[in-house]
Amino acid sequence: MQQDALKRAAAQEAAKLVPDGAIIGVGTGSTVNFFIDELKRLKHRLEGAVASSVATEQRLKEAGLRVVDLNSVDELPLYVDGADEVTRHLTMIKGGGGALTREKIVAAVAKKFVCIADKSKLVDVLGKFPLPLEVIPMARSFVARQLARLGGIPQLRQGFVTDNGNVILDVRGLTILDPPALESELNQIPGVVTNGIFARRPADLLLLATEQGVQHMGAA
Ligand SMILES: O=C[C@H](O)[C@H](O)[C@H](O)COP(=O)(O)O
């Protein structure tokens, strides 16, 4: 099966979990775009959606959905998002599209985080995908030096500015054996806004699309 067909299958499975009358969180990326296609069909029984990026906000609006400011909701019953890498422990690397900071915020508010992915995203150990860090522009060189001390090889994502006006460093060469520990350590570097390890708030459920069907992994 083509990768896009797998992404769509995962998105369709996630659409079955959308509660009636709810405001839900919606992530960013090509897999989530298939989920937004599904939401278009469900829009009459959805109160609204909180977007994790400007791109998702635009797409939700084009689909006829009401986009809600996160500050006006106390809790989200569901957050659906993709990943660049995901393990069986439901820890992830995210931020390939540069939306990691807003994604981490919306995920923190959500009661249930459902990760949708095709089988190519499943890994045993995180780190083959370059780890994105959102960084305050004036701290770029300092943060890069600190990352090099940790054994990473940082590279500035050229010509890219996040929705928050910051830059992205993509870091190769990190062996992420303890994802929660590295997530915390990287957050301590002054100038780092967010790093793309999602381990302190992992997904609750992974919907992993394979040729044999969509596997449900996790507790939810
Ligand atoms: O910043 C982007 C997000 O973290 C995405 O969820 C991630 O990059 C996966 O995107 P895609 O579904 O396009 O592979």
UniProtKB/TrEMBL annotation:
This protein's UniProt keywords: Isomerase
SUPFAM superfamilies in the cross-refs: D-ribose-5-phosphate isomerase (RpiA), lid domain (SSF75445), NagB/RpiA/CoA transferase-like (SSF100950)
Active site annotation, chain numbering: 103 (proton acceptor)
Keyword Isomerase appears in the UniProt entry: yes
Top-level taxon: Bacteria
Reactions catalysed according to its record: aldehydo-D-ribose 5-phosphate = D-ribulose 5-phosphate
GO CC annotations on file: cytosol
InterPro entries: NagB/RpiA_transferase-like, Ribose5P_isomerase_typA_subgr, Ribose5P_isomerase_type_A
Sequence positions that bind substrate: 28-31, 81-84, 94-97, 121
GO terms of biological process kind: D-ribose metabolic process; pentose-phosphate shunt, non-oxidative branch
Enzyme nomenclature, EC number: 5.3.1.6
GO molecular function: ribose-5-phosphate isomerase activity
Pfam family, one: Rib_5-P_isom_A
Pathway field: Carbohydrate degradation; pentose phosphate pathway; D-ribose 5-phosphate from D-ribulose 5-phosphate (non-oxidative stage): step 1/1
Similarity field: Belongs to the ribose 5-phosphate isomerase family.
Quaternary context: Homodimer.
Function field: Catalyzes the reversible conversion of ribose-5-phosphate to ribulose 5-phosphate.
Protein name: Ribose-5-phosphate isomerase A
The species this protein was found in: Pelomicrobium methylotrophicum
Lineage: Bacteria, Pseudomonadati, Pseudomonadota, Hydrogenophilia, Hydrogenophilia incertae sedis
